[in-house]
Amino acid sequence: MSGVTMNKVIKKYGDVQVIHGIDLEIEDGEFCVFVGPSGCGKSTLLRMVAGLEETTGGSMSIGTRDVTHMDPAQRGVAMVFQTYALYPHMTVKENMGFGLKMNNHPKKEIEEKVAEASRILKLDDYLSRKPAALSGGQRQRVSIGRAIVRGPEVFLFDEPLSNLDAELRVEMRVEIARLHKEIGATMIYVTHDQVEAMTLADKIVVLRLGHIEQVGAPMDLYRDPDNKFVAGFIGSPAMNFIKGTAGDGAVEVPGLGQTIEIGIAPAYKGKSVDVGLRPEHLAIDPAGGDLRVDLVESLGGVSYAYLESPAGDRIVVEERGDDRVSEGQMVGLTFETQRVYLFDAETEMRIRT
Amino acid sequence: MHPALLGLMTIIVGVGGCVGYFYGANLFLDKVLFPAKGPNAGRNINRANIIRPWIFLFPALFALGLYLAYPVFATLRLSFLERLPGNEYAFVGFENYTKMFAEPKFVEAMKNNVLWLLVVPAASTALGLLVAQLTDRLKWGSIAKSIIFMPMAISFVGAAVIFKLVYEARPEDVAQIGVLNHLYLLFGGDSPQQWLTIPFWNNFFLMIVLIWIQTGFAMVILSAALRGIPEETVEAAVVDGANPFQIFFRIKIPQIMGTIVVVWTTITIATLKVFDIVFAMTNGQWETQVLANYMYDKLFRANDWGMGSAAAMIIMLLVTPILVWNVYNARKEMR
What we know:
Chain A: Keywords: ATP-binding, Cell inner membrane, Cell membrane, Hydrolase, Membrane, Nucleotide-binding, Transport. The complex is a heterodimer of chains A (353) and B (335). Chain A is of the alpha+beta class. Chain A has helices at residues 42-50, 92-102, 107-120, 136-149, 166-183, 194-200, 218-223, 228-233, and strands at residues 4-13, 16-26, 31-35, 57-62, 65-66, 77-80, 154-158, 186-191, 203-208, 211-216, 240-246, 250-253, 258-261, 272-277, 282-285, 291-298, 303-308, 314-319, 330-335, 341-344, 350-351. In chain A, the strands form 4 sheets. Chain A has a 6-stranded mixed beta sheet with strand order 6-7-8-3-9-10, sandwiched between helices. In chain A, helix 2 crosses helix 3 (107-120) and helix 3 packs across helix 4 (136-149). In chain B, helix 5 (141-149) crosses helix 8 (201-227) and helix 11 runs antiparallel to helix 14 (305-334). Chain B is mostly helical and 335 residues long. Chain B folds into 2 domains: 3-78, no CATH class; 100-334, MetI-like fold (Orthogonal Bundle), CATH 1.10.3720.
């Protein structure tokens, strides 16, 4: 068991650089999630850990071993692919045992390990089937089983749930979390789904355009984002951003028709800032106001009200309880000042107060 | 009349006739036979739709029947008859077959055909697969592939002529225009060889021509199949620790097995029917006879229609099971 350390890791395709010097420390036994929009380099980074992509610059080590230029097979990693990547001509059992067979492990040991993995993943009934005869969820379980059997130091998951339907995705998510608890190995998991990231991770790495935007525990990222990108990416529905102007110990927000009394540094005076408010931290003031309810999405337990200000700002509000607004209503908004996030409109960096 | 004009007229009449047939027959069906009006409009439409496919299929079925099915049965009939002077025929039962099986030249042809069957499809498929795999990732791979594919565009007779020159032997004191003899002398051979007259081995010199042609075909199909293998399965195998050979033989080949079988059987059928190459290069002399050339010998040189037809039936008997298997596999691939 061992962690993964990246030191100024760079990836270039010809002249195009896609990963710009990543420094990252993943602890032994940690569940680390790479998250970010498509094209942010998260899959590339994972494939570099796997050894499927060459590392152009910097160094990478697993445990104490420098693996920067090592073959994938020697790195002690196992990978679960988005498309399962099962060998279609082999049975479930052969699929799971293939890695050990390639490394000349004795038959008996392979049998035992496959049996153990199939027990963990409840695949006993399907061992002699071919992948074509399995459902999507079962295929992904076999794919995970193939990784378990090899007993790797690091598990790599490349968007493993993206090809599953919503219901199965939740189920498999729980299963992967359980697996991590049971095996305790280091896991790196790539996803663009922030819900998966929040629910699974010990540590989230938010990536954008080949840079790390922020690293931290899920709730730390949620409560204390470093910049506008992370604030907007973590949390669902996404944080609302409304334009404002910094004043004397206050921010004027025309979109809300309010001035928020907040301890903003005098240096920002007169500068434009983005005011971030999470939908769940907003409450509707039914007494009235100049925000029009444009649309209401009712999910049962919660509703999302899409409000439009006279200035054209769009604000999403989460509503619970029995009294909910209806479309076309004119309402106001209330919130607690300590729930307000401020970002420099120019650099998009967080202004901590 | 000028031949070009004649050709043009043929095209106009032929194409016009086809269009006229389909249009007219369709119109007749809809307007006259089962008009979509009156008290039985619904029933008529249904009936017209049942008949319509057959109207459209009829020309193709008729042509296939006339030029494919009928000749098979006619040949079968001829193989049981003997031609007598004065355009008379006598039924002789299996005598043509028994006579043929007793003939050494036929036995030789059978043996050689088996040899061709074992060597050519295997060699072509293996070489095609090798080329397809080796050129897969190369920058100039597609150029290499087009060059290797080129022999496909040459007729068998043309290829035979090319290779006849390759195997050409000139007297010892003259410059060798045959590449093989030139190389042979270069590497210490004592005198130019008449390669095509060396029994047993000359079969292989003939086979090389067909392999040369069929490798391109195998390569193109297998190259496409290799491209169709999901990249992730290969990557998974890399992570699993398989070396390049294991990836090729345990991951890639099994996934394209269906295509390999189709290519193999297709070449097998072409091999069973091989005629032109042998005809143009040795004409079956020096123990290189094959079934198709034997049939041609009997049918058109000896004018023995009975035995010629019997030989044709034997070839068909050999090809049919492979053809059935080929079609079965090709269909499975398409699913």
